[in-house]
């Protein structure tokens, strides 16, 4: 029941029409009997949107593409993960002070816990914001070195420089078959595959191990990996866990992965 005390939350991005975050967060608000609602906002000017958050007193928002980096400069405080990654995906309005968090890092840490990754040869594909969250999560869970494959080598070199004090990164082109051949855990952190057709990298040389995608459905890469009898996991675990952490930041309630997945009609 919406009334004059209903608290407003939402997700800000562009495009946003296909976001599954409203389904999940509204399901959680209902499940826990909270008087709150979560909407999707297709925003063209992120700075203007932040005037709105402050002016209307929203409880909090998620931030998605293409605004995660810009948001860092629009909040009053940021947590350690957001600072390290250089991106904010969750904002909490604490009595007019906006706190920025990066819960993608937590989401990916939860994904990694399902995989045998320690002491393995790990390759990350991509050098954008998502790749930074993935590499920072790898560092937090004790990984000392990764291969990084990217289309644009300049961007890969920049990322290596940014993280050089915490993790060793070896940069390679997307066609570096010898790197793929030695990889035990290959992580796609690009958007390639969202179209349901494209592959970010050729995994033919991979003979063992895990393929992980941050895209939250079975991409051609994930399907290809399974057809080769490799272990594979898509981005749904990362997605639900970043949402679980955002929900906890806003409400103090820590919901289970099982509940979040069932609200989405998913299982992993
Ligand atoms: P995000 O925040 O989701 O990581 P981003 O910062 O724009 O988004 O980064 C997108 C990543 O996907 C980059 O690594 C990009 O490669 P470039 O650095 O060469 O731009 C990669 N990417 C996107 N489209 C691609 C494509 N068609 N082929 C190869 N890589 C692609």
What kind of assembly state do the chains in view correspond to? Answer: single chain
The biggest beta sheet, please? Answer: 6 strands, mixed
Task: Give the overall pLDDT as a whole number.
Answer: 97
**H/E topology pattern:** EHEHEHEHEEHEHEHEHEEHEHH
Strand content: 15-25%
Ranges with pLDDT <50 over ≥5 residues? none
The total count of helices amounts to 11
Shape: globular
Task: Describe this structure as you would to a colleague.
The chain is 38% helix and 21% strand. Helix 5 packs across helix 6. The strands form 2 sheets. Strands 2-1-3-5-6-4 form a 6-stranded mixed β-sheet, sandwiched between helices. It is α/β, with parallel strands linked by helices and 268 residues long. The radius of gyration is 19 Å and the shape is globular. It contains 11 helices and 12 strands. 2'-monophosphoadenosine-5'-diphosphate (ATR) binds next to helix 6.
Question: Could you list some keywords that capture this structure?
Answer:
single chain; six-stranded parallel sheet; 38% helix; binds 2'-monophosphoadenosine-5'-diphosphate
